[in-house]
Design brief:
five-stranded mixed beta barrel, mainly beta, about 120 residues, OB fold (Dihydrolipoamide Acetyltransferase, E2P)
């Protein structure tokens, strides 16, 4: 049975490959403090279905390349997009447009370049 892992897609820029970041918690053996550990896996995505932010399940398979040892099993969850913000942006009234009749802003004076300073000779 192949080992399966669940994580979040952190990159889908390459063709047929995704990078999945898996977060875990470990406890320090001496201090007993918990800390997070992240591990990144390259996984094969044949149909380029998964995108950045998706929660996916990957499973082990034969080596597909130098660093690819997993393949995409299924997409568990897609990120939620804020629809209400998009609707408000579309229905909002456009900002006031200035016409050419209004006076242009005053030109800003550019600072002059300083003259080069000659180094002083040091005598000993």
């Amino acid at each position: 049975m192949a080992k399966t892992l669940t994580g979040i897609v952190s990159s889908d820029k390459t063709d047929k490959t995704i990078i999945v970041t898996i977060r875990g918690h470990k406890t320090h053996p001496l201090y007993k403090k918990q800390y997070t550990v992240t591990k990144r896996y390259m996984a094969h995505d044949e149909k380029n279905e998964a995108h950045e932010g998706d929660t996916v399940m990957i499973s082990e398979c034969r080596p597909l390349s130098a660093r690819k040892r997993h393949q995409l099993t299924k997409i568990l969850e897609r990120p939620v997009i804020a629809v209400h913000q998009t609707v408000e942006a579309i229905t909002a009234e456009p900002a006031e447009v200035k016409t050419a009749d209004e006076p242009a802003a005053k030109a800003v004076a550019k600072p002059k370049a300083k003259a080069a300073v000659k180094p002083k000779k040091v005598t000993t």
